[in-house]
Amino acid sequence: MLLPRSRAALARTRTTLRRCARPFSTPPPQYPPKVRALPFVAKPEDVVRRTGLLATLQTFQKNYPSKIVNAARAYLNFGGELVWPDRMQAVYLPSWVIDAHASAKFTLSKRGDENTKEQTLDVWFQRSFMPGFSMDPLSQLSFSELTTDERLAEAVPFSEELTKVQDIDVLCLPYTATPFALPDAARTLSFNDAIIEEDFRFDPTTFRSDLITAYPLLVPVYLMQYVAPSYRGGEGYSFTLIVDASSAQGAVISENVFGLQSQFLKDTLGQRSWFDVPADLLEDDVMRILPLGAPPHEPFARPGFFSAAKPGESWAGALGEWVDARARARGAMGRYAALQAARGQTVDLADPRVRDVAEAPAFAEYLQQVKIVYSWRDTLEQLVRIDAQSKSTNTKVTVMSVGNTDAQDEVSSMQGLIKTMEGTLARSEAALAEKKPGWLREWEARQRVEDPARRDA
Description:
Strand content: 15-25%
Order of helices and strands: HEHHEEHEEEHEEEEEHEEHHHHH
Number of domains: 2
């Protein structure tokens, strides 16, 4: 429901505004029980008090200095009048928290080194964030700070009670984007698009993903629109603040108004070059302005590598920034929606890979065991490679035993070490099989039936 500038006006126009909002917010989408939502914790009046000064600073208008003073007094609770937005809407944004494993052939090289190396690398994405809808600029936002165990524990099953904040209707957007089209999206990239850095790229045609687990999460926000009216020849403009309402001190995100403010100043005070805005400040459509000192964006992807090559943290950071830049780009989710439609993929909340977010901590423990198995496999592959090289060159390899050797024969040969590692790997794989969730067993079995190529996997 929309809120006017003052509480008195709110009372006078509540009936009209509710009638206007009804087509959008009633009835809410029929989410299944596995969909959870973070409750609205921040109340409308508290949010208006917290953001009023920031909004006023961005709204060039008549009596600008006095309005800033008033907003500051309201913020400090020193008698100033609250600066209500021209429109305010409570919204639940459909989102996904994603755990995934993928692999692809990467080309790696060191800076200044002409030698390159191509190798298949395993990449893990844990607690990554994806919008479940396409609507810029809202779908250009990541709220990955909400994906920690502590914050996810606050999520509750969606119910009718969550469709109101006090007596204000909450607009509940439906899920229209599924994360299960992401592998197809990656494979459609051009080779130029797949250049992460000059010395780091991958082959899109080799991209594979055998595990994507997605947790639906509804993120509560307030959309607050402010209007700067025309003044002294300057064309008016409007902008929107997006406020994370899941906590009293949630992030405040603003549409980028630097360009609008620059033009306004030029129109009213003259076309002077000192009103120009540096190009880098115009690149982002939205940016975080609270809390103070926070980065302008939260990451979408949290990748990590696990392979014999063991790329450093810089590789993971570069890949994360590469994903984030594409996810934040204007129209990114619209293009993804078009690809999803072309592939005939729809949102299926009954898919067994869609899990209740309450299961995320337990599944994280399972993924940790998966990573251990991958680590042992990589180590065994390296030992076998070293052994083969030593035999081909008639080089003697001496292996020293390290650590606890109680009730065990000392490992004195590469073959013995390999045998020991094979036993360790077998035990780890057995432990992993015991921890595998039942739903994952069923899904993998179904995939083997549908895709004969997977039967030996």
